[in-house]
Every structure is written in structure tokens, then in C-alpha cells.
Design brief:
Elements lengths: L5 H14 L10 H15 L5 E2 L5 E2 L3 H10 L6 H12 L6 H15 L4 H8 L1 H7 L9 H14 L23 E6 L7 E6 L2 E7 L16 E5 L2 E2 L8 H7 L5 E6 L11 H10 L2 H32 L2 E5 L12 H13 L5 E7 L4 E5 L4
Antiparallel strand pairs: 1-2, 3-8, 4-5, 5-6, 6-7, 6-8, 9-10, 10-11
Helix pairs in contact: 1-2, 1-8, 3-4, 4-5, 6-7, 6-8
């Protein structure tokens, strides 16, 4: 009897999808998010309950055992230990699930995603300490299968923007980020409102350098200034951060409020806007809903047109011949010869569609 698990089958499927990218895999790859979600589910499945410092049960997260294993500093796994330390020092992720997601992204880049699974494979008692025996990582065979999939991923070239980590506590959906370098100035000309520890931009001075070419827009999130992470701890400190590099170019890392296709608001920022309670920002929601409705309408029309134009084969209509009551296939060759001899051959572009009973000939519209 073969041992398998639906999550491993799914992970294999997403891995095959990633193989289709011949050069490098970046945040634009639509399959990457699905792969990461699936792997996260593999890690979370079957975790045994654990106790907090006060002796109460707490929600188990894979991050806890990954951190524990990294602190053991097993030989040959120093890369993984360094990655865990990098995650712990990052001030953009605050929750166990956010740290787990950030860890997965860094491990993909550093080609060490397999290492913690390999440690559990070499030390099975560790696996049974953290996982149910019927889970993927608790079962010896399933663990080996998962390890083989992850070793395959080491062959891929991941080029991910690791600065893009601010919303990993909330979602795997990566926002659109831009890195800007502005000319030296005393003031950026932007106003922010701290909502849920994020610096939501609520106003941009039209005459400021930040406003040029819509580099920074109302509704965006100010993520970094001169490589300083901006979060709840930065309240009242923005001027001080600016003064540190007075007279030098200013670098900003901005998280855009629109998704990559510019059709809708990035969902976590949408929640920030609603939580802020600022009326002027709510207009962004209305604009986004109108844009989305208009886009949906255009997509429907486009699909309808494409369906109409793509149904059948593109051929030339040359004319018709009356064959009387005889309509069998033998008449086709005779009719063609008769039409050619008549000298009345037309050249009209049409769509020729074979149906279950009969045919449909539709004249193409010349735009």
C-alpha cells in the first residue's frame, strides 16, 4: 500500500509549475505564492499542542520548533541557523506565522529549505516530539518524500525581494513595492497616520519631491526611510531619522496601495484604510470599487468578443451554388468546379464552424 498525502501531491504539482520558469523565479511568479502556502500547510499539519511559559496550552506554530532546532547549531546546518537569526532580528514581522513565512522566503533564496526537514529525518525523536505520528513530518516515509521535493527546489534560482516582508503577518499575497531615491530635502512633504503599527500615508504635498510622477500616493504605506524600518516604534521619530542624513539623497521603500495589476486595492491596506477612520481615505475604496466594476465589465465584453471571433475556422467565402434536392457530399466537388467556371468567385473573410448538426458561417467584422 503506497503512503501519500494530498498536501504532498499538491506541493509536487506546484513544484512542477515552478520548473517551467527557465531562468529565475521572482515575486511576479503567480505559482510561488501557492507553493509557499502549500509548504506552510505541510509544516503546520499535525503539530502537537505545546505549553506557554505560564503552563497554558498555546496555538502550535512550526516556527517554534524551527527556532528550537536552529538554536541547537547542528553541524552542517549553519546556513539554516543564520537564516533563523536573520528572521528574529527583522522588525517587519512580529507573529509566529509571519516569521515562518519570512523564513520560508529566505530559505528559498539561500537554498536551505530542506535543512530543517533533513534534521528531523536524521533525528526521528525530534519529529515525534513536535508532530503527530500520522502527520507528514511525523511519518517517516512522508517526511522522506517531502525532503526529496524540497531538495528539488534547491535547483531553482529564486530572486525574491526580501525587503518586502511588512505584511507577511497577514498574508502570503505580496504587495507591489517601489524603492525610491529622492534629492536631498528638509521635508518629504508627506503626512502619515500610524494604524496597526503601519505608517499609512494620508497626505502628499503636490509640490514635494515625493509627489513627482506619483512616486508616492495617498493610501501607500511608508515602509522604510534611509533603510530605517518605519513601524509603531517610529511614532514621533520621523524628523529625527530625516536629520541623520541631512544634505544627502533620501531613500524610501514604499508599499503601494494598489495591486500589481492596478485593478484593486491591496487587501491588507484596504483593512488599514478602514481601521484608520480617516474619511478622505475612504474615497480610495469607492474609486477602487468603481474601477473594479468597470474592469469587470470590460473583461466580460472582451471575453464575449474573443469567444465570438475565436469560434470556428477563419476561411474565405467564395460563393454558393444551387444543387437542388440533392445534398450529399458528392455534390461538393461538382459545386466547386461549377463556381470556379462561373467566374463569380468572391473573397469574403468568414468564420466556418462545424456543429453537431450542420454548419455555421459568420462574416468577420472589419474594424
Amino acid at each position: 500500500m503506497s503512503v501519500s498525502d494530498p498536501l504532498i501531491k499538491e506541493l509536487k504539482g506546484w513544484t512542477r509549475k515552478l520548473m517551467e520558469d527557465p531562468k529565475e523565479i521572482n515575486d511576479e511568479n503567480e505559482d510561488l505564492c501557492h507553493f509557499c502556502k502549500c509548504f506552510e500547510n505541510c509544516l503546520q499539519k499535525g503539530l502537537l499542542p505545546c505549553l506557554d511559559s505560564t503552563g497554558y496550552l498555546k496555538t502550535p506554530y512550526a516556527w517554534h520548533w524551527l527556532e528550537y532546532v536552529a538554536e541547537k547549531n547542528y553541524s552542517s546546518y549553519s546556513t539554516f541557523s543564520l537564516v533563523v537569526e536573520q528572521v528574529k532580528q527583522n522588525s517587519k514581522v512580529h507573529t509566529s506565522i509571519g516569521r515562518l513565512r519570512f523564513l520560508i522566503r529566505i530559505c528559498l533564496v539561500r537554498k536551505c529549505l530542506h535543512m530543517p526537514i533533513e534534521i528531523l529525518t536524521r533525528i526521528p525523536t525530534l519529529a515525534t516530539e513536535f508532530y503527530d505520528l500520522k502527520s507528514i513530518l511525523g511519518d517517516e516515509i512522508l517526511r522522506e518524500i517531502l525532503l526529496s521535493v524540497l531538495l528539488q527546489c534547491n535547483k531553482f534560482n529564486f530572486k525574491l525581494n526580501l525587503r518586502n516582508a511588512t505584511f507577511l503577518d497577514d498574508t502570503w499575497q505580496m504587495p507591489l513595492c517601489v524603492a525610491l531615491e529622492l534629492v536631498p530635502c528638509k521635508s518629504l512633504g508627506i503626512s502619515v497616520c500610524f494604524t496597526k503599527e503601519k505608517a499609512l500615508i494620508v497626505n502628499v504635498d503636490e509640490k514635494s519631491v515625493a509627489a513627482e510622477d506619483n512616486k508616492v500616493e495617498i493610501g501607500d504605506v511608508l515602509d522604510e526611510i534611509n533603510e530605517n524600518v518605519i513601524n509603531g516604534d517610529s511614532k514621533g521619530k520621523l524628523r529625527k531619522i530625516m536629520k541623520k542624513t541631512s544634505g544627502q539623497p533620501i531613500t524610501l521603500h514604499i508599499i503601494k496601495h494598489r495591486t500589481k495589476n492596478f485593478r484593486e486595492l491591496y487587501e491588507p491596506i484596504l483593512h488599514l484604510i478602514k481601521s484608520s477612520g480617516i474619511e478622505r481615505l475612504k474615497s480610495l475604496i469607492q474609486i477602487s470599487q468603481l474601477d473594479q466594476a468597470e474592469t469587470t465589465k470590460r473583461d466580460k465584453i472582451s471575453k464575449l468578443k474573443n469567444k465570438t471571433l475565436s469560434s470556428g475556422f477563419s476561411v474565405k467565402y467564395c460563393g454558393s451554388v444551387h444543387v437542388g434536392t440533392e445534398g450529399d457530399v458528392k455534390q461538393i466537388e461538382k459545386a466547386i468546379r461549377q463556381l470556379l467556371k462561373s467566374g463569380e468567385v468572391k473573397q469574403v473573410p468568414v468564420k466556418f464552424e462545424c456543429l453537431e448538426i450542420g454548419i455555421v458561417v459568420t462574416q468577420e467584422i472589419d474594424d
